[in-house]
Amino acid sequence: MNSQLPNNSDTRMRKQQVAALKKRFLDTIQRYQDVERNYQLRYRQRIERQIRIVKPDATQEEVDSIIDSDGPPQIFAQSELHQLFMDMSMMVEQQGETLTTIENHAEQTEGHIKEGNTFISKAIQSAKSTRTYANYKLTLFFLFLGRWRK
């Protein structure tokens, strides 16, 4: 029966081990809380810097309310959307000049095509006239040749 009950030295040693483990556990929890606080502080500072970049005139109360309301992604999305519209506006302006140039070239090309079609029509008419004239000359030549031989 005595072998089942721990003696005083065992009890004391177990209590010391439990106390040491409890102290290590509490120290670990304390370190975890310190690391978490440090992370939260750095996260808050980083988000605040980003908010100040996006909205330089924001008051501290606005910054705090944005951070506390899980708003940073929304304000950054708004900033990215604004930047996208600005980029698109600039591209439309830049490409507007290009489109105007393309339109002018298309109009010039249309004029050149009309002028070319006019020249082709004149060339076809001239070729027909030349053939007709050549046929008359050959006919007259053969007529004179036939009368001259007789």
From TrEMBL:
<dbReference type="GO" id="GO:0048278">
    <property type="term" value="P:vesicle docking"/>
</dbReference>
<keyword id="KW-0812">Transmembrane</keyword>
<dbReference type="GO" id="GO:0006886">
    <property type="term" value="P:intracellular protein transport"/>
</dbReference>
<dbReference type="GO" id="GO:0005886">
    <property type="term" value="C:plasma membrane"/>
</dbReference>
<feature type="domain" description="T-SNARE coiled-coil homology">
    <location>
        <begin position="79"/>
        <end position="123"/>
    </location>
</feature>
<dbReference type="GO" id="GO:0000149">
    <property type="term" value="F:SNARE binding"/>
</dbReference>
<dbReference type="InterPro" id="IPR006011">
    <property type="entry name" value="Syntaxin_N"/>
</dbReference>
<dbReference type="GO" id="GO:0006906">
    <property type="term" value="P:vesicle fusion"/>
</dbReference>
<dbReference type="InterPro" id="IPR000727">
    <property type="entry name" value="T_SNARE_dom"/>
</dbReference>
<dbReference type="InterPro" id="IPR010989">
    <property type="entry name" value="SNARE"/>
</dbReference>
<dbReference type="GO" id="GO:0031201">
    <property type="term" value="C:SNARE complex"/>
</dbReference>
<dbReference type="GO" id="GO:0012505">
    <property type="term" value="C:endomembrane system"/>
</dbReference>
<keyword id="KW-1133">Transmembrane helix</keyword>
<protein>
    <recommendedName>
        <fullName>t-SNARE coiled-coil homology domain-containing protein</fullName>
    </recommendedName>
</protein>
<dbReference type="GO" id="GO:0006887">
    <property type="term" value="P:exocytosis"/>
</dbReference>
<keyword id="KW-0472">Membrane</keyword>
<dbReference type="InterPro" id="IPR045242">
    <property type="entry name" value="Syntaxin"/>
</dbReference>
<comment type="similarity">
    <text>Belongs to the syntaxin family.</text>
</comment>
<dbReference type="Pfam" id="PF00804">
    <property type="entry name" value="Syntaxin"/>
</dbReference>
<dbReference type="GO" id="GO:0005484">
    <property type="term" value="F:SNAP receptor activity"/>
</dbReference>
